[in-house]
């Protein structure tokens, strides 16, 4: 499954929609408060945000991907915001190493782990990178490449950038690459709305993309595992939450609906999904009086199944719900399509709200 990397934290006060156009205004206000810190564990568009003067930091062990040379006019690092984990949005951190401001008109990450360019959707006019500073560009992941790998997973990522030509007096930053003129185009955005990409008139450059925490590899592994599991059965949490009379415990329902016929799984695998066990989250743990199932085998064409999962609060500190980002993503340790790993089932908006209410009430009565 690859290394479990630290995720970036969103600044205090930012909401879950701050990666749509307007990101720069929201996160620039946070300024130095944005800490690229380690934490556990994707489309929207935006204009980026300032992260201070450096790249991300964390307590996890880097994957060994070499950091791009500082001699490049722009260096790129891949990371992921904590609350964008379930949306499969990555953070492309760009640092301006020149003595003057640069305007980035477009950016696209290429990697052998994904089927197409992972594009940042810019606002009109792009985004300015002040000299010596770093900004974050959110980019929605594309479909994963799940075939047999012929090269190390953490090699080969790069970012292709379009940089606007300097308009100020005197010589501008030295950017290698031919100047080109590309008409503005309209691309579909994740929320179902079209996004107009500004005309990219300026040199195109390609820089290596460091991925020190294996963000691309982790997302590829999880997405490929998800595809293999989905080829066998659909997994979902029912929106109802059955709360005990004393409000100290509750019951979730995990519904499993096998496909009528096997889907396209990896070569040599069988149309079988095994749920080895279910893990707790930062908010939820197993209620011993209603234990979670283990070693559940699911076969394409088989009968539907439902499992009652007894839960109770895993923590009751004041920030448990207020700071939650991934506490309602239920981790299933599964085997499917010749792959093993963690598949996270999202509670969905309705059940998520009920879980938060349950935890608040349960903790208030302790």
Task: Characterise the protein shown here.
The chain is mainly beta. Helix content is 11%, strand content 33%. Strands 1, 2, 3, 4, 5, 6, 7, 8, 9 and 12 form a ten-stranded mixed β-sheet that branches. Strands 13, 14, 15, 17 and 19 form a five-stranded antiparallel β-sheet that branches. It has a four-stranded antiparallel β-sheet with strand order 18-16-20-21. The protein starts with 22 loop residues before the first helix and ends with a helix.
Reconstruct the topology from this structure.
Layout (H helix, E strand, L loop, with lengths): L22 H8 L18 E2 L23 E6 L9 E8 L5 E9 L7 E3 L6 E3 L4 E7 L17 E6 L15 E4 L2 E4 L5 E4 L2 E11 L4 H16 L2 E5 L4 E2 L6 E9 L13 E7 L5 E3 L9 E4 L5 E9 L15 E8 L2 E8 L1 H17 L2
Parallel strand pairs: 2-12
Antiparallel strand pairs: 1-7, 2-3, 3-7, 4-5, 4-6, 4-8, 8-12, 9-12, 10-11, 13-15, 14-15, 15-19, 16-18, 16-20, 17-19, 20-21
């Amino acid at each position: 499954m690859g290394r479990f990397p630290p995720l970036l934290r969103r600044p205090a006060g930012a909401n879950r929609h701050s990666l749509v156009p307007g990101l720069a205004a929201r996160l620039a206000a946070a300024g130095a408060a944005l800490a690229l810190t380690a934490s556990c564990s994707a489309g929207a568009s935006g204009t980026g945000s300032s992260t201070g003067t450096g790249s991300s930091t964390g307590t996890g062990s880097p994957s060994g991907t070499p950091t791009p040379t500082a001699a490049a006019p722009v260096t790129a690092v891949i990371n992921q915001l904590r609350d964008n984990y379930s949306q499969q949005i990555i953070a492309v951190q760009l640092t301006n190493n020149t003595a003057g401001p640069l305007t980035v008109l477009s950016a696209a990450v290429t990697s052998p782990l994904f089927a197409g360019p992972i594009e940042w959707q810019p606002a009109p006019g792009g985004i300015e990178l002040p000299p010596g500073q770093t900004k974050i560009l959110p980019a929605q992941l594309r479909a994963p490449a799940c075939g047999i790998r012929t090269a190390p997973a953490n090699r080969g990522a790069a970012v292709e950038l379009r940089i606007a030509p300097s308009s100020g007096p005197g010589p501008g930053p030295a950017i290698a690459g031919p100047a080109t003129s590309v008409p503005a185009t309209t691309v579909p955005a994740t929320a179902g709305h079209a996004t107009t990409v500004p005309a990219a008139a300026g040199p195109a450059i390609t820089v290596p993309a460091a991925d020190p925490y294996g963000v691309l590899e982790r997302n590829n592994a999880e997405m490929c595992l998800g595809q293999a599991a989905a080829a066998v059965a659909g997994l979902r949490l029912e929106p109802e939450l059955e709360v005990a009379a004393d409000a100290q415990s509750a019951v979730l329902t995990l519904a499993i609906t096998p496909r009528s016929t096997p889907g396209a799984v990896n070569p040599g695998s069988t149309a079988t999904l095994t749920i080895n066990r279910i893990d707790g989250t930062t908010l939820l743990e197993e209620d011993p009086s209603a234990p979670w199932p283990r070693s559940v085998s699911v076969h394409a064409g088989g009968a539907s199944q439902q499992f009652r999962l007894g839960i109770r609060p895993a923590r009751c500190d004041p920030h448990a719900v207020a700071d939650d980002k991934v506490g309602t993503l239920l981790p299933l340790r599964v085997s499917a399509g010749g792959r093993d790993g963690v598949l996270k089932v999202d509670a969905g908006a309705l059940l998520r709200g009920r879980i938060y209410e349950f935890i608040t009430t349960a903790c208030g009565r302790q």
